[in-house]
Specification:
Layout lengths: L10 E7 L2 E2 L3 E16 L7 E17 L4 H8 L2 E5 L2 E9 L6 E2 L11 E4 L12 E4 L2 E4 L10 E8 L2 E5 L8 E9 L4 E12 L15 E7 L14 E5 L1
Antiparallel strand pairs: 1-2, 1-13, 3-4, 4-15, 5-12, 6-11, 7-10, 8-11, 9-10, 13-14, 14-15, 14-16
Length: about 240
């Protein structure tokens, strides 16, 4: 008599895309789309004489809960550029009273900027004539800066990175999920050999709750895998 194996399952794990930990990911799902072709039975009695089912597409999707530029680049087919900290001198800006004059880089607000008129002979006072944020300079209508005035701004740019969205044609990457069955404590690992993420349908960027966004992509056949009995799509290892 064969033994009945019962293994309840509650899954958790770390998702790695091309070896990079994407942080807190949830709702990991595999979807397999199938196409069935049938040959009717014409010999009487109805039904089908033959039937074949083929895999039409394999999809891997999950929810990203960490809004890093690297994660968003996957969902927006973007490119991430590294920005080093450094001094920016006399960047020209046009004042917008009580509005934002955007600087070329994010400002390190721990270092006070220097805002002058175009001639450079007048230095304006922070928090009296203007306020500063990471995004730029906001001239105050109660100060001495006039609407549309040409300014020169010197500041320290903040180290970080910049996401250039929708600049890439797409990428194919391996995905590994290093998981644990929380119901049993047993480890499992899922390996997807070739995953091609598609642009997300949208992102909620301002709200009163923790943000997240969904990402989905096709799991493509890996033509380098030719051995009999070996999947070209993905495999699951389990203890």
């Amino acid at each position: 008599m064969s033994e009945t194996v019962v293994e309840s399952y509650i899954g958790s794990g770390i998702v790695y895309v091309a070896g990079r930990d994407v942080g807190n990911a949830s709702g990991v799902k595999i979807a397999i789309e199938q196409e069935t072709k049938t040959q009717p039975n014409f010999r009487g009695g109805g039904g089908n004489a033959a039937e074949i089912t083929r895999v039409k597409a394999v999809k891997l999707s999950f929810t990203m809960n960490d809004f890093s530029n690297a994660n968003m680049a996957l969902a927006l087919r973007g490119l991430v550029e590294v920005v080093a900290a450094g001094a920016v001198t006399d960047e020209p800006l046009v004042a917008v009273l009580d509005g934002l004059a955007r600087t070329a880089f994010m400002i390190d607000t721990t270092v006070a900027p220097v805002v002058k008129n175009e001639a450079g002979d007048v230095t304006y006072v922070k928090d009296t004539d203007y306020v500063v944020s990471a995004g730029g300079i906001r001239a105050l209508s109660s100060g001495d800066i006039t609407a549309g005035e040409a300014l020169k701004v010197s500041y320290t740019k903040k180290a970080g990175n910049v996401l250039q969205a929708l600049t890439e044609s797409g990428t194919t990457v391996p995905v590994t999920i290093d998981g644990v069955n929380d119901a049993t404590g047993k480890p499992w690992v899922l390996d997807f050999f070739k995953w091609s993420p598609s642009p997300t349908a949208g992102m909620d960027l301002i709200g009163d709750d923790f943000g997240s966004f969904d990402i989905e992509g096709g799991v493509l056949a890996d033509s380098s895998i030719v051995a009999t009995g070996k999947s070209k799509f993905f495999k699951r290892s389990a203890a």
